[in-house]
Every structure is written in structure tokens, then in C-alpha cells.
């Protein structure tokens, strides 16, 4: 398996279908899709089951724990994360990534579209990498036992710990992801 795509989802029935559709239409099919339905009380689980049989209902109500659960069940050589209200920009994302990842890197950071702000390179305006996980493709063996914490926006801390491991990192100035920032009800709102 080349890629594992992990989506932690919490009551996202109104949004998740767009995220799942952007995975379903990928031209490159050597992937597994894992959706962790984190304390969902709406029909997010039923929607996710239309797309994958790897849907795990969990009572965490914590994005860090949900990401860890997905990571613990991932079997792909490379791991990608997607938020339940975001999406990939085109059907060739995995095809392009499959050509860009290699034995010489551990993390591939890519560009994205930032709602309300537009195009964003893999590094922000101060030259530091964005602290989100959804604009990175990480080698699962490099991630090893690095797990997310339970604090709010735990991907910030996780990224800091991953960078402290001195990954062989490559920046790729190719926008692949749409970050639906500041949507009412989202973690970033």
C-alpha cells in the first residue's frame, strides 16, 4: 500500500462528502482511506461508510486521539491527513505525490489554498513550515511512534516534534489542498 489517508471527523455530515469525493476521484488507486468518526452524533459515520470500510466510531471527542487511532491502523508507506471539511484540489493529487516521494526524503511539504488568503507555499512568510499536518506527506516508518497530544490544535506540537527528529524534508511548491479555514464550527474558528 502506497498511501494511507486519515480523516478525523466530528459531526461533519454537512461537509465531509466533499472531502471524501476528492479522495474517491483520485486517478492513483493504491491507497487506503481511514475515517475516524470522533464522538459523532450526526450521520457522518453513515456517509463515510459509503466511501470506505475503514470507518472507526470512537468516543474520544479529541482530534489528537482520533489522528493517533487512524495512524495506528494505517498500513501505507506514506501517510496523509485531511480535515473533514477540507478537500484536495484535483484528481491527480496522489498520482503526483507518488512521483514526488522517494527513498531520499521522509517528509514532503506541499503548497495549498488558504480560504480567504489564497495561495500558500509550504513555508510561511517567515520561512518556517506550516504547523499543520494536512500539507505534508510523511513516511510512516519515519513517523514511527511519534503521536499527537490531546491539547487543542495538537498538530502544532506534533509537527514541532517531527521537525526535531531532523527529517529529510523536501518542499514542493505545488498546491494540492484546500484549507477551509475559519468555517463556523471548525477547530480553527
Task: Please write out the topology.
Layout (H helix, E strand, L loop, with lengths): L2 E7 L6 H9 L6 E8 L5 H6 L5 E4 L4 H10 L5 E4 L5 E2 L4 H8 L6 E8 L3 E3 L15 E4 H4 L10 H11 L4 E11 L10
Parallel strand pairs: 1-2, 1-4, 2-3, 6-9
Antiparallel strand pairs: 4-8, 5-9, 6-7, 6-8
Overall mean pLDDT score?
A: 92
- The proportion of residues in beta strands is 25-35%
Number of helical regions: 6
Report the major sheet.
Answer: 9 strands, mixed
Which structural class should the secondary elements be placed in? alpha/beta
How helix-rich are the residues, as a percent range?
A: 25-40%
Radius of gyration: 15 Å
Q: Count the E strands.
A: 9
Give the ordered list of helices and strands: EHEHEHEEHEEEHHE
Shape, principal axes of CA atoms: globular
Spans of at least 5 consecutive residues whose pLDDT stays below 50 are none
Taking the alpha carbons of the first and last residues, their distance comes to 35 Å
Description of the structure:
The protein has 189 residues and is of the alpha/beta class. It contains six helices and nine strands; from the N terminus they run βαβαβαββαβββααβ. The protein has helices at 16-24, 44-49, 63-72, 93-100, 140-143, 154-164; strands at residues 3-9, 31-38, 55-58, 78-81, 87-88, 107-114, 118-120, 136-139, 169-179. Strands 1, 2, 3, 4, 5, 6, 7, 8 and 9 form a nine-stranded mixed sheet that branches. β2, α2 and β3 (55-58) form a beta-alpha-beta unit. The chain is globular, with a radius of gyration of 15 Å. The termini are far apart. The mean pLDDT is 92.
Amino acid at each position: 500500500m502506497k498511501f494511507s489517508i486519515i480523516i478525523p471527523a466530528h459531526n461533519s455530515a454537512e461537509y465531509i462528502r466533499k472531502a471524501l469525493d476528492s479522495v474517491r476521484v483520485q486517478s492513483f488507486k493504491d491507497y487506503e482511506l481511514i475515517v475516524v468518526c470522533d464522538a459523532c452524533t450526526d450521520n457522518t459515520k453513515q456517509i463515510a461508510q459509503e466511501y470506505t470500510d475503514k470507518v472507526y466510531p470512537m468516543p474520544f471527542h479529541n482530534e489528537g486521539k482520533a489522528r493517533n487511532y487512524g495512524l495506528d491502523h494505517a498500513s501505507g508507506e506514506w501517510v496523509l491527513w485531511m480535515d473533514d471539511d477540507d478537500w484536495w484540489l484535483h484528481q491527480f493529487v496522489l498520482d503526483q505525490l507518488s512521483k514526488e516521494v522517494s527513498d531520499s526524503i521522509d517528509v514532503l511539504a506541499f503548497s495549498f489554498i488558504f480560504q480567504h488568503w489564497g495561495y500558500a507555499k509550504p513555508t510561511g512568510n517567515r520561512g518556517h513550515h506550516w504547523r499543520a499536518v494536512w500539507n505534508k506527506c510523511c513516511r510512516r516508518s519515519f513517523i514511527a511512534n511519534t503521536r499527537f497530544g490531546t491539547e487543542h490544535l495538537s498538530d502544532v506540537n506534533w509537527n514541532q516534534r517531527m521537525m526535531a527528529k531532523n527529517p529529510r524534508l523536501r518542499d514542493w511548491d505545488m498546491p494540492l489542498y484546500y484549507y477551509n479555514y475559519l468555517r463556523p464550527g471548525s477547530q480553527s474558528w
